Amino acid sequence: MIEEQEIGCGDEVFMIGRFKAHEGKERNLPTVRFGNIAMMPAEPVMHSRGIKQESFLVETRSLGGYSGSPVFLRIPHTSVRPSDRRAPQPKTLLEEAFPLHGEGGPWLLGLDYGHLPLIERVRSKTDEEPVPSGEFVRSNSGVMGVVPAWRLLDLLNMPEVVQVRDKHGREIAEIKKKAVIVLDVAADESRSGPEPERLKITGDWEDATKRALNKGKPSKASPKRGKRKR
Fold first, then answer.
1. 3-state helix/strand/coil string of 100-137
2. Is residue 13 within 8 Å of 71, Cβ to Cβ?
3. CA distance 22 to 30
């Protein structure tokens, strides 16, 4: 998909996550932040745990609390791509695993796991010269690291993860066999025929209820009138 759509630097992305500075008291609503791809995952990023992590570098101004947030890629309708001039292609394994997209997306680009800091010298408040103690502070560069979605797919397809998933699937199947109640859910139309006619609510609820109760009752036949004799 990256090659077919010519995904690269400058393409628009957005992520949904938690903004700690305004979490809310009654409801914890997520925030959406927007940005652009700054670098493709050609050079790995050194992780704080000492591993080299394959990553997209994305300018989306990530902050503490957004770690683990999904990052989506979106192609504007005004952006012409080579796929617009080609015949439809079969879906890849990644597209089948993450089917949330239309012609221009959004596609799951990956997960946010952190931002790259800038190391700056501490400066004097009076003359803005570096302090002689040589102290440093970290500032946010505005560039975050995103683990590619195909790495998530590799994680989900690890043998030990597949074994656990299959085990839980068998346990759920056994629980369903032992169920003593049948759920009153709407049946599939292909199995039980067309659904019965539903009452359309066009007025208030009271009128709709009366129509529902009266529906199906035999209507009172009007008395036949004979011809008047002259």
1. CCECCECEEEEEEEEEEEEEEECECCCCCCECCCCCEE
2. yes
3. 10
Domain residue extents for the chain: 12-149
Longest dimension (CA), the chain: 126
3-state secondary structure of 81: coil
12-149 CATH choice from 1.10.8, 2.40.10, 2.40.30, 2.50.20: 2.40.10
What is the value of pTM for the model shown?
0.58
More confident residue, 79 or 14: 14
In order, the DSSP letters of 26-38 are S----EEEEEEEE
Q: Are 74 and 58 in contact (CB under 8 A)?
A: no
CB 113 within 8 A of CB 66: no
Q: Could you tell me the pLDDT band of residue 158, with boundaries at 50, 70 and 90?
A: very high
- Residue 147: strand, helix, or coil: strand
139 has pLDDT over 80: no
Q: How many CB atoms lie within 10 A of CB 86?
A: 9
- The residues, any chain, with a CB within 8 Å of residue 147's CB and separated by 6 or more, are 53, 54, 55, 110, 111, 113
